[in-house]
Amino acid sequence: MPVSIQKKISGLISRFLWEGSEDKSKIHWLSWSKVCSAKDNGGLGIINLEEMNRALIGKWIWKFGNDLEGMWRRVIVAKNPRIHKSLLPGTDLVMKGSWMWRDIWKSFTAEDTFGNTLRKNLGIKIGNGKNIKFWSDIWLGDTSLQVRFPRIFALATNKLCYIADVGRRGPSGWSWEIQLRRNVFDWERLQWADLLNCLNSVPIQGLEHDWIQWRGSTDGCFSVKSFRAALGVQNSDRNFWKNNVWLGFAPPKVEAFFWLVMNARAPVRAELRKRGISLIDGDSCPLCQSCPETVKHLFFNCFGVWQIWMSFCKAVGVEMVVHEDPKNFVENWNAMGQVSKKNWIPFIPFSVIWSVWLYRNDVVFKGAKVDWVQLRFMVKFRLATWMKAKFPNNLITLEDLLLDLNLADSIMVSEKDKRSQAHWTPPPKGFLKLNVDGATSVETNRAGIGGLLRNEEGINLWCFSEAVDLGPPSLAELEAVLRGIRFFLASVWCQNLRLIIESDCRKVVDWLNGVVNPPLLLRNGIIATMSTIQNKGWFVRWIPRGCNTAADGLAKKGIG
Question: Is the pLDDT of residue 45 over 80?
């Protein structure tokens, strides 16, 4: 997307958010970068178009290293012969490339947050070693071998060789054969030994192709979402936003205003005066007329509002002190709910703050008289209404909730029970059910697979738990599926019964059901497996992790 179009669209979004127009600009209460931050990081989660544009461009770099037979790659390689075997573009730009390729290359090599994040999270993974330059590519650790072992690189006879050129596979596995122009001197032996130790720690799996792994996601596949997540700075208070603001307890408009208040930003009189807006009635609080109207005062410290907060504390038998910071106030308020074991307590801040704001506007713009009893009733009414909207299937009436808010505990407990009811179910008659899972451990650099076969009575007929080569979790999950299929095809049950395969990895399920195309290096094997599944009349289904705990335990056991 051209930069000029990108800026224009961002401007339209910004004006819509702050209720401005082409003729009249409104106050932007928070920076655009803050607004575009993820919700868990204190933002609104609005898409940053520059970030999205760079992420979409970055995906082409990942595809360049994985779609080795793609037509678009072959065209680029034909115009840039020096990168015909490379998984990643070189650092030198070939000017005869198309403007589109030049933009992709510039985005990849740029020394900015986007470029650095992209390069940092793209990792070269070894297959057959035919596309990875042994000395210059970064495939072992964080730097190239020519930088880590400069003396050995200087002695190498072939400095442009690929991994496949410096070793061979024998009966006992892969062995390295690095050709040097002379024997190493004594003072070079330590570096030579370190190089060999590093090389011997790398398993050469002998897959069909080398490939590029995206470290920003667990399955190794690039996605715009994972790139944007990698760009985001993790704030120390990210748990606050997730646990106290974006709960789905109030309408989205209310949550957005609540977010503003938690950032100590709202169009109260004190904030308007800071921004140079003249006020006829001064900056005193319209509800009590005794203090300046700040965010903290209006929503928390104003005498009548504080009495409303305290009435809820009294209802649950808990005391609370005043907190100057809105975030501290709400955090401690919800902690009070945990102490009192009242699950409806987190609804209250939304209802109080929104009701106070609407009532304040009625006083300022419609000349309404302050009636604290009426305001307290509106807080309770909104609270009860939102709880009924959140849990519509409950039989407790709105009138009953208004009389006794403690009835809301039974609503939320029953909803929690419903969510916890997910469990494994046995297959129908004429079927066996195969549950599989794959697990990886970055700490131990190992992976495992597990699965079990059960009949219509839930009896375990067979299970497995094995260690496998470390790779993306989706590959481990696929290997678990194939392991289970091989066993079932060789068993006596295959003659009379059909199979239902269940996995909690949606990507693998989508591959086997033909919903999405698998990676190129796995395509042939997956197509053959799909053919077997279709010919046999089997089914492949996705299930939540809670329904797959037995297979998950076997996979983790396989890690060792």
Answer: yes
Distance between CA atoms of 234 and 40, rounded to whole angstroms?
A: 9
Residue 411: predicted pLDDT: 64
Look up the pTM and report it.
0.63
Domain count, the chain: 4
Q: Are residues 342 and 461 in the same domain?
A: no
pLDDT tens sequence across 290-312: 899 999 999 998 999 999 999 88
Looking at the structure, tell me whether residues 273 and 389 fall in a common domain: yes
- Domain span including residue 336: 238-419
Residue with tokens 């002379």: 182
Please compute the mean of the pLDDT values over residues 240-244 and round it to a whole number.
Answer: 85
365 belongs to a structural domain: yes
- The dihedral built from the CA positions of residue 362, 363, 368 and 374, taken in this order, carries a sign that is positive
Q: Which long-range contacts (CB under 8 A, 24 or more apart) does 112-116 make?
A: 113/231, 114/51, 114/54, 114/58, 114/231
d(CA 59, CA 80): 20
In this predicted structure, the answer to whether residue 421 has a pLDDT above a threshold of 60 is: no
C-alpha R_g of the chain: 31
If asked whether residues 517 and 382 sit together in one domain, one would say no
Rounded to whole angstroms, the Cα distance separating 276 from 263 reads: 20
Asked whether residue 307 falls in the same domain as residue 402, the answer is yes
Whole-Å CA distances, 320 to 288, 306, 350, 465 = 22, 11, 18, 53
Q: Which two tokens stand for residue 253?
A: 């408009």
State the average pLDDT over residues 41-60. 85
Mean predicted confidence (pLDDT) in 449-478: 89
Pairing state between β 431-441 and 173-176: unpaired
* Residue 381: how many other CB atoms lie within 10 Å: 15
Judge contact between 501 and 480, C-beta under 8 A.
no
Judged by DSSP in three states, 227 sits in helix
Q: Are strands 431-441 and 498-503 parallel, antiparallel or unpaired?
A: parallel
